[in-house]
Design a protein that fits this description.
By secondary structure, the protein is an alpha+beta fold. The chain has one domain: Transcriptional coactivator/pterin dehydratase (Gyrase A, domain 2, 2-Layer Sandwich). The chain contains 3 helices and 4 strands; from the N terminus they run αββαββα. The chain has a 4-stranded antiparallel β-sheet. A hairpin with a 2-residue loop joins strand 1 and strand 2.
């Protein structure tokens, strides 16, 4: 796994909706109709995270979900983070 530089990250962020670079991680926040919908999406994301063995830092309050992605092993952002962000986008839409 190779850590991406700032230019690579910013170029790839242009292809994602709602994600931004915040304190060394990819971050996005999502709003849902209610807690049940938010939790349902979190469950679908959790299965994908397990399949990839790559887990987000996330925070859920009622109908909101904030997700942060970075790779702790390299102390930065890698292709794995972008791959998971792309999957999360597909699961949320």
């Amino acid at each position: 796994m190779e850590r991406l530089n700032t230019e690579e990250i910013e170029n790839r962020l242009q292809k994602l909706q709602g994600w931004e670079l915040v304190d060394g991680a990819l971050e996005a926040s999502f709003q849902f109709e209610n807690f049940k919908e938010a939790f349902s999406v979190m469950t679908r994301i959790a299965f994908e995270c397990e399949a990839q063995n790559h887990h987000p830092d996330w925070h859920n309050v009622y109908n909101s979900l904030t997700i942060r992605l970075n790779t702790h092993d390299v102390n930065g952002i890698t292709n794995n983070d972008f791959a998971l962000a792309e999957i999360i986008e597909k699961l949320i839409v």
